[in-house]
Amino acid sequence: MKKLLLLLIASSLVVPLASSAQRKTKPRTRTTAPLYNSNTREATLKNQLSNALRMAQGGQYEAAANNLFTLSRRSELAAERPQIKYILGTMLMELKLNQTAAFQFVDVIRTKHPKYSKLAIEKLSIVADTLGDDTILNYAISRVDLNDFPSNLRDMINYRLGEIRLRNREFRQAAELFGKVSFGSSYYFQALYNKGLAELEENQPSLAIGTFNKMLDARRKAPVTDTNKVAAQMGLARALYQKQDWEASIEAYAQVPRDTLMWHDAVFEQSWAMLRAARFRSALSNFQTLHSAYYEDFYMPESLLLRAIVYLYICKYDEMEKVLSLFEKTYGPVRSKIGDFLKSTNEASAFYAEIEKAHYMKTTDKSSNLRLPYIVLRNVLDQGDVKRSMHYLEKLNQERARVESNPAFRASPLGQYALKILANRGKNTKFAVGDMVKAHLLNMRVELRDLYEQAGFIRYEMITGRKESIKKKISGKDIEQIDENIDRQFYIQNGYEYYPFQGEYWLDEVGNYHYLGKQSCE
Amino acid sequence: MLKNGFKAVAIIILALLLHKAAFAAEVIELPPEELAQESVLPVFDKPVSVKNRNVVTDKRIEADIFYGYAMTEPIANVSKLGLGIYYNTSESSAWGLLLAKNFAGLSSYAEQLDEQFNLKFDRAPSPELTAMLDYNLKAFYGKMSLSKSLVINTILFGSASAGVVKYVHKTYPAVAVGLGQKFYFTKNWSLRFDLRLYANQAPVPFLAGSLKPNEPVPDYSDFEERVTFTTNLDVGLSYLF
User: Which positions carry the signal peptide feature in this UniProt record (chain B) (predicted)?
Assistant: First the structure.
């Protein structure tokens, strides 16, 4: 990369001089005095440009960037502007000021310069990829024929294009693009995972199983907590679930290690598979963990309803009642707070402010005054689009810190320009995040409304079941129900059948709680 | 010998009782594939080892009464009774004041010396009172289960103290370091064990030509002084307010 840069700068040193020489041969039509002044000024500028390029070649990136930035604004050097801006961009890349560099490359692309536009697109795609900025990347990709991209960038472009297709729900095309990413590329495993996802969305679980198995095979020697390996395992479990192979799916979920971020989701999803496989006791064992104090910050209304459904299947109506009450007690206020918040504001900035406070709480041990429940905001923070944008904001902050840590550079016109760009991008991204948060909150509100309806149906089934149970009791057909013992202490002593959130729970025990109750149905 | 026999019988009876309690409930076998296969911990943003702690000490006062046994004291009475009051500034630190009154008289060893060699060690100055400022660093919070229904929480801590040891005639500065363990059998009550190594200036009780009955009674100032190390075991009962 460095060698290429030096070569490019070296060739650039020749170009201005050559173009200057060519112009000298052209006949002058103006009067001598202004011509003399103009020539002198132009020569001075060319000289400055040559100096700046020499600085760039000599590794004095900051000084070169400052000089190039000044020269890029001179009208006398309009013809050289694409070249100046391109090299300025590469200097900024060297200084790790990717966002500021991206703007130089966009300017070059707009000029449609036969040589530098194409080079700028390549560079823009690299900085956009580093920043995780889809807007810029899409701009770069839309400006050029993909075949014109150098082969070393083709994997990245295919991967990014696949992502765009996936977002647009064009699953078949997305899978094709992901399939083009070659083995050995740093995008290979992400592409393989996304290919599996696209295949699942296309309702082709068998294909997806093949894809995830391929990924697992490729990562066989990786450590157990390797992100790609775990993601593949999770994908495989989901694909098996989609294929309705419950037992295999349960087995695959069980392979997700506890010391990975995906474990919680694996336990929850495995509970669904267990319910479908009629392994009720096993499903209830999982809920001992999922509903333990360790997950009190997690938004998971569905898991409480699922637990109630499992109790319904084994005729544990008292337990059902308790879980449904817990659902209403926990998510009733959540629902109303989301509704109130959505009614109170429409401003993207207000939504962003709320998520920023939650992000602060999540990343530090400090608390903050929130208008929305933390479990809601934590869930929103974990959504892919929000996470990505927050990551992008983090990159912008790092870049701003880099500029501000250098007082001389900060005071220079280029430093001021960079800060202005970063402030602007930051502001727009915050608005975009605010809109994303709002969209997620709207979805949550709809989801909670549906879940409340389901809770109503479950409660109805519970009442019917209880009625039947009383009828059997009257007719003497009833079997003994341990639920009749209202003393919760009994359950705790009998192996944590009921989880009262009052006990002491240890991190190293999470995942080891087991349900030891029995079926109460006849 | 008889003492050890009693101890053994007591342990066996206790074990049988606990054994009965432990196996009173129905034995339930879990499918092996559903048991945790690894010993790693789940991942959280902010890992906390214990949620809903049974014993919360933070910003709470704890008072204890203890019996102290000087394990390496040759002459003076090895027993003392004490009081302590601690303030827990956090879940990891506590500051306290200790006051212990020594029992009067001599150690059994000193009495043996008197019987065999007619040496009157009660002529030597003996410690009367110990007052220390104590800092506790609570290193580990744990639990142990004695049966299915009896779980005891434990706190293992290190201690560092500074204060004075008052002898009948003079008061000497003292420092101590130690290791302690508390067993909480309720959320407030605990048994506390402290093993401390004291270092303080103290009179040497062995004074030639002054300890026999026919010899002149020495003045307390006649006894030489030197830095003395004493290992002390305190056993007490604590209450967390």
Answer: 1-24
Contacting residues for A487 by C-beta, under 8 A, at least 6 apart = none
A185 domain-assigned:
no
- Residue A248 banded pLDDT, cuts 50, 70, 90: very high
The tokens for B198 are 């004291």
CB–CB of A507 and B50 under 8 A? Answer: yes
Q: Is A259 on the interface with B (CB under 8 A)?
A: yes
Q: What is the average pLDDT across A42-70?
A: 77
Nearest CB neighbour to B43, from listed A260, A362, A505: A260
- What range does the domain containing A61 cover? 47-149
Which of A105, A127, A149 terminates a domain? The answer is: A149
3-state secondary structure labels for all residues of B58-80: CCCEEEEEEEEEECCCCCECCEE
Structural element, H or E, at residue B95? strand B93-102
The closest alpha carbon to B53, from A495, A295, A502, A366, belongs to A502
Q: What is the per-residue pLDDT across A332-380, written as a single tens digit (0 to 9) for each? A: 999 999 999 899 988 888 899 999 988 888 888 788 888 889 999 999 9
Q: What is the domain count for chain A?
A: 2
Q: So where are chain B's domains?
A: 56-240
Give contacts of A 334-363 with B, CB under 8 A: 362-363
Distance CA A512, CA B3 (A): 43
Give phi and psi for B231, each to the nearest 5. -95, 130
Cβ atoms of residues A140 and A126 within 8 Å? no
Q: How many residues does chain A have?
A: 522
Please give the single-letter amino acid code of residue A124: L
Helix (H), strand (E), coil (C) string for A332-346: HHHHHHHHHHHHHCC
**Min Cα separation A520/chain B (Å):** 17
What is this model's ipTM?
0.73
Asked whether the beta carbons of residue A254 and residue B33 sit closer than 8 angstroms, the reply is yes
| Beta carbons within 8 Å of A229's beta carbon, 6+ residues apart | A215, A216, A219, A222, A223
Whether A410 is in a domain gets the answer yes
Task: Choose the final residue of a domain: A434, A451, A475.
Answer: A475
Strand partners for B63: B85, B239
Is A154 a member of any domain? no
Q: Is the Cβ pair B47, A507 closer than 8 Å? A: yes
| Residue A178 is assigned to a structural domain of this protein | no
Identify the sign of the CA torsion B48, B50, B54, B60: negative
**A438-A440-A441 Cα angle (round to 5):** 65
Average predicted confidence (pLDDT) for chain A: 81
CATH topology of domain B56-240: Porin (2.40.160)
Q: Residue A358: which of A376, A334, A336 has the closest Cα?
A: A376
